[in-house]
Amino acid sequence: MKKSTEILSLPIISIADGVEIGSVKSLVVNPEKGSVDFLTIEHEDWQVSVKAIPFKKVIGIGEYAVTVENGNAVIDLNEIPIANALVNKKIRINDTKVMSRKGQLIGEAKEYFVDDETGYIIGILVGMKESEKVLSAEQILTYGKDILIVKEDSAGRFMDSVEELLPETQEEPELDLEENTSIDIENIRNKQAGLLKGKRVTKDITGVSGETIISSGTILTEEDISRAQTEGPSVFVELTMNTQD
């Protein structure tokens, strides 16, 4: 799960090409599905057309970057009418009014939370006069340009913490949550390793301590990739941007 603001401005890295495609300019919300369907791209060379990446093409969203398999994940919105129509709707969620179905003003949306595996919106943070509360996306009836319409009884369904949005488990929820999180991370790492394995490193890669962990010319193995992933996101991104077939 990610805050929308944690995704904005992240570099977008093509693992297969070892290049930075651009950075995340905006999240394109599909109001019918209640999901983020595209990430638009900020790039100084693209002034005329608007480029984007379908969320389903995203391999992972980390602390440092969004990763995709290769540059083919990028689309031109002018060539995809459905995607272009979503962008033009300009559904932003943050800083919109939250109102009940019967017209009661509840507060203002300050943030929203996205499932970083599927793109579906999980919930929103609602600012009120004296507090901020979390509301599940299940309570939202309409995602409008200026107003979010929620169910009539939503005022009684606020949560105190965003953690309450996470799936409940029957037994030992904390252990199950940690297990699910580790599985998600492991899946992302396996995808990343599969794309990099067998590529040649074009410069020495140093770890957080300053020591060389992978030498230039190395043909990457799973062990090499795992070592870079363990060092942290900045080291791993450095590796992805300095490899070739």
Would you kindly provide a written description of the structure presented here, covering whatever features stand out?
- It is a single chain.
- With 245 residues, the chain is of the alpha+beta class.
- It folds into 3 domains: 2-89, PRC-barrel domain (SH3 type barrels), CATH 2.30.30.240; 96-165, Roll (SH3 type barrels), CATH 2.30.30; 187-244.
- It is built from 5 helices and 18 strands.
- The protein has helices spanning 4-7, 81-89, 173-196, 222-231, 233-240, and strands spanning 2-3, 11-14, 19-30, 35-42, 51-54, 58-61, 66-68, 75-76, 97-100, 105-114, 121-127, 132-136, 140-143, 147-150, 200-201, 205-206, 212-214, 243-244.
- Strands 1, 9, 10, 11, 12, 13 and 14 form a 7-stranded mixed beta sheet that branches. It has a 7-stranded mixed beta sheet with strand order 6-7-2-3-4-5-8. A two-stranded antiparallel ribbon has the order 15-18.
- A hairpin with an 8-residue loop joins strand 4 (35-42) and strand 5 (51-54).
- It starts with a strand and ends with a strand.
- Residues 169-183 have low confidence and may be disordered.
- It comes from Rossellomorea vietnamensis.
- InterPro entries: PRC-brl_dom, PRC_barrel-like_sf.
